[in-house]
Amino acid sequence: MKENKNNKTKMIFVRLEEAEYDTLINRQKKTTERNLSAYIRKILAGKPMIKSVQNESLHEVIVTLSLLQKDLNGIGNNYNQMVKRLHTTDKIPEIKVWMQHYLDERQHIIDATITLKEYLDKTAQKWLQE
Which of 9, 21, 54, 109 has CB 3.0 to 4.6 Å from 16, enough for a Cys bridge? Predict the structure, then answer.
């Protein structure tokens, strides 16, 4: 079953003065719409827009936490694979190699956890001051 996509095939080019463009961008920034084309389409269609109530520092925190989450997920996957490999290996030299990998990844987890704790402490202090 094919999806009925609403492809946008028509383009409009508009020349604006610097002040007009700045006004447009400033108005867009006051909404939750981050895509300029989508913002202009909503204006043309007369659709309602949500006024932005986002806290920029909160956005920064979310981005940083997302990156940390990806790092921790990757480290966790590597860690799980190594533990599985350690349990299924019966050769002593191979166990030694995997044990070293295990210890290295364990240290990565500890380092990432410390980084996360420091970042959360710094962010909490910043928010509590406000």
Answer: 21
- Residue 6 structure tokens: 């609403």
Q: Count CB atoms within 10 A of the CB of residue 123.
A: 16
Contact indicator for 32, 54 with CB cutoff of 8 Å: yes
Q: Which two tokens stand for residue 54?
A: 């986002």
DSSP class of residue 2? Answer: -
pTM over 0.70: no
Q: Could you tell me the mean pLDDT of each successive run of 10 residues in the chain, 130 residues long?
A: 71 92 90 86 85 66 79 82 80 80 84 84 71
Domain's final residue, options 53, 75, 91: 53
Calpha distance 11→27 (Å, rounded): 22
Coil, helix or strand for 31? Answer: strand
The verdict on 13 and 68 lying in the same domain is no
